[in-house]
Amino acid sequence: MAAPLTGVVPVVPTIFHDDETVDLGGTALVVDYLMDAGADGLCLLANYSEQFSLTDGERDALARALLERVAGRLPVIVTTSHYSARVAATRSRAAQDMGAAMVMVMPPFFGATLTVPGPAVIEYFKQVADAIDIPVMVQDAPLSPTPLPVSLLVDLVNQVPQVHAKIEVPQAADKLHALASALGDSLPGPFDGEESVTLIPDLDAGARGTMPSSMVPAELGQIVAIWPVTGPAR
Amino acid sequence: MAAPLTGVVPVVPTIFHDDETVDLGGTALVVDYLMDAGADGLCLLANYSEQFSLTDGERDALARALLERVAGRLPVIVTTSHYSARVAATRSRAAQDMGAAMVMVMPPFFGATLTVPGPAVIEYFKQVADAIDIPVMVQDAPLSPTPLPVSLLVDLVNQVPQVHAKIEVPQAADKLHALASALGDSLPGPFDGEESVTLIPDLDAGARGTMPSSMVPAELGQIVAIWPVTGPAR
Hints:
The structure is a homodimer. The first copy, chain A, is α/β, with parallel strands linked by helices. Helix content of chain A is 40%, strand content 12%. Chain A has eight helices and eight strands, in the order βαβαβαβαβαβαβαβα. In chain A, β7 (191-192), α7 and β8 form a beta-alpha-beta unit. In chain A, α4 (118-130) runs parallel beside α5. The model of chain A has no long low-confidence stretch (mean pLDDT 96). The A-B interface holds A 19-21, 47, 52-57, 83-87, 109-114, 142-145 and B 19-21, 47, 52-57, 83-87, 109-114, 142-145.
């Protein structure tokens, strides 16, 4: 991508058959709908895609089929999160080779209690970034018990220039404002998420894009497009 | 297994090479050590095995290689947890076909916040149990944010007779005592876990086995073997 990704980048839900197997054709129809709605990009295999319900083989098949369906018409972000930096890096390289414009990765965690300290989080994202040439969207979401305080995100962006960020924790606008103030243009985007429920304050705080589900992408895209860029000086 | 599994059933750690790939040969040596130490059974791919650091293919290769190494000399429990009941059932069937004597499964959850209500937990374990003929050890561990209160575990055992249980949450002895009192012999075992740090009170409360890591299996096995059966009437 020449210019940083901005605008509305919906998450593509995975469609399942009644027996809970993946409906690749049905999922491709959702991609068609989101492109018709004017999405600026698409995100695959995120939590709204129920990525935690899929086998490794199904993740791979979905990413491949949906990237083929998009056929380069829009930038596509593929979520490649895994507890192991080795596995996340391998998944990220495979996504790039399939045509992804960016990968999205949560910090490493498992369950409610297994967390990773800040320096290891930075090493994790270095290992992922070193495996690819495309950007890495760090996903800061309430599902992860591994915390990403502003100070850690600032260190991460300074040490791993490929990093972009999606902030969807409580008080997202405060965090976006702090990041935009500290990092300016060295943090491209940033995005909010969490159904865009705090979109207006997030845009005012410096967000340049939003990653909602697939419900009202056209309307959300129009808001991002017309909203004046009024965040911290960039 | 003719008789219910009791005693010490250590979790086999996964051995990794320096580049973080799986060392199958090294892991097989740990199996040899645990059998030499007199373990009553072995558990594969649990959280102490760092199962969250593995790909699906690596899980499969480890289970296959280690079951071949044991060669039927001991009962082997294979952990087959996955958020999706469909995937957990498929993994469990594959484990049975490879020679597992039991599978171990956590309730479905993802991250710190995505939990599943009680009736869906029962449906989940029904779907897993229906796919296999061997028992299912329900793992009640602090890593899971999906709660398993005593009342739910009692309903689960009553509705899914294949269920065994490993209790390793805080106040494990209280929970084991409540389960043993309510269920008696219809809950075979039960086991504690969490490094056997509360083994004595857990045995007094009705535990009949312990699932520690691989550090002192011989010593823990001797304690379980000599401890008088003093729990609630069974």
